[in-house]
Amino acid sequence: MKIAFCLHKYFPYGGQQRDFKRIALACQQRGHQVTVYTFEWQGERCPGFEVVIVPKQGASNHARNQFFSRWIADYRTKHPDDLLVGFNKMPGLDLYFAADVCYAAKTAQEKGFFYKLTPRYRSYCQAENAVFSTDSHTEILVLTPQQQTDFIQFYQTPSERFHLLSPGIDPHLFSSQQREKYRVETRQVLGLTDGGFFLLQVGSDFRRKGVKRSIEAIAALPSQLKDKVTFWVVGADNSASYRKYAEKLGVSAQVDFHQGREDIPQLMAAADLLLHPAHQEAAGIVLIEALASGLPVICTEICGNAPYISAAGNGVVIAEPFSQDKLNQALAVSLQDPEQLELWSQAALRYCKQQDVYRLPEQAADIIEKRVKDVATRTAF
Q1: Are 75 and 4 in contact (CB under 8 A)?
Q2: Boundaries of each Glycosyl transferase family domain copy (predicted)?
Q3: Residue 72 and residue 364: Cα distance in Å, rounded?
Q4: CB-CB contact of 284 with 15 (8 Å)
Q5: What is residue 75's DSSP assignment?
Q6: What is the DSSP letter of 256?
Q7: What residue spans of 220-323 are helical by DSSP H?
């Protein structure tokens, strides 16, 4: 079968991009031909993937996105495939992987009346409606039950069109053995002392991931704790304003920013705590990677994968509505009790031995193969 995937941008370090790559590779390993439509591909290309670069046309993001879907529709008439799997909302998809929240729900909560009159709002709602409306035949892969609830609430999408996936991290990179394997060596390479605390935050889009919240929590620590902290923020974004914020709060010496890196498993093994106080997060694969790494977590309840942290007993979930004081307190209390950090770490490793946190690519490939057969049957009749 020839299976086509489309996403606006591929870069190696995004959660959506990593899910796409592992699902596409799972399909390829089953003997299917993989075509990828994208505006941009950063990093090494996967052997055997046919990557089709879509030209960018339009003065705004939403105009370019509309052109993206039209261009692919035209291209596919001349270069047919068996199925189109989308990682961004657009018309014409057979399957949509919901790596994002419901746009209609988000704007209803955060935006006023006049925003809904903008071309941007209309364009994004039209794209979302094309996937989730009752007239659509697109089936949807979701990462959390909350996503399904939100989409059904706003679009009355039939529940049978949804497929809830398990988490899916790479077992070759994130496993219970890595903490013991990498921790001492990596801490030595990074120059971390035995009495110091290495805090980590991983993810692109620093505003949405709550990096300023993390910096403020570190700045609020008692001086005897703050002086022992090294905080790394790893992700693809412009760090200039966040560096200035750390300097303003007097913690620039504690905070370092790094672009996407290949050694996240080693960094998670070396870290004492993952901070993820996101403003918005449909799922948050980094939380599951932390679980499998035995890395304690402080995150916000808004994260789709936050229930896994609660179920595992691997840290603190900050309830909504968000309180900066509660985050500050949670961080301070955690660092004052290294024994609790170790208990959280062991609880995470036990949880991942008992639960399936690896099978997302295989589950998605199963659904894709079934969908190809369903589409072929419907077309035949």
Answers
A1: no
A2: 185-348
A3: 22
A4: yes
A5: H
A6: E
A7: 223-226, 240-248, 264-270, 285-293, 306-312
Distance (Å, rounded) from C-alpha 65 to C-alpha 238?
A: 23
Which domains does the chain possess? 2-166+359-380 (3.40.50.2000), 178-354 (3.40.50.2000)
For 350, half-sphere exposure in the C-beta direction (CA atoms, 13 angstrom radius) is: 10
Confidence at residue 176, expressed as pLDDT on a 0 to 100 scale: 81
Beta bridge partners of 200: 232, 274
d(CA 216, CA 227): 15
Distance from C-alpha of 130 to C-alpha of 121, rounded to nearest angstrom: 14
* Residue 4 token pair: 């086509």
Give the number of other Cβ atoms within 10 Å of residue 92's Cβ.
Answer: 16
Pairing of strands 33-38, 2-6: parallel
pLDDT at 253 exceeding the cut of 80:
yes
Mean pLDDT for 149-153 is 96
pLDDT at residue 98 greater than cutoff 80: yes
Q: Which of 155, 230, 224 is nearest to 192 (CA)?
A: 230
Question: What is the pTM for the complete model shown?
Answer: 0.92
Contacts of 105 (CB under 8 A, 6+ apart): 150, 153, 154
Record the tokens describing residue 366, joined without a space.
């199963």
pLDDT in tens, 317-373: 999 999 999 999 999 999 999 999 999 999 999 999 999 899 999 999 999 999 998
249: exposed, middle or buried (C-beta count within 10 Å: 0-12, 13-18, 19+)? middle
> Which among 302, 279, 270, 275 is positioned nearest to 287, based on CA atoms?
275
pLDDT of res. 111 = 93
Q: Is the sign of the CA dihedral 36, 367, 91, 99 positive or negative?
A: negative
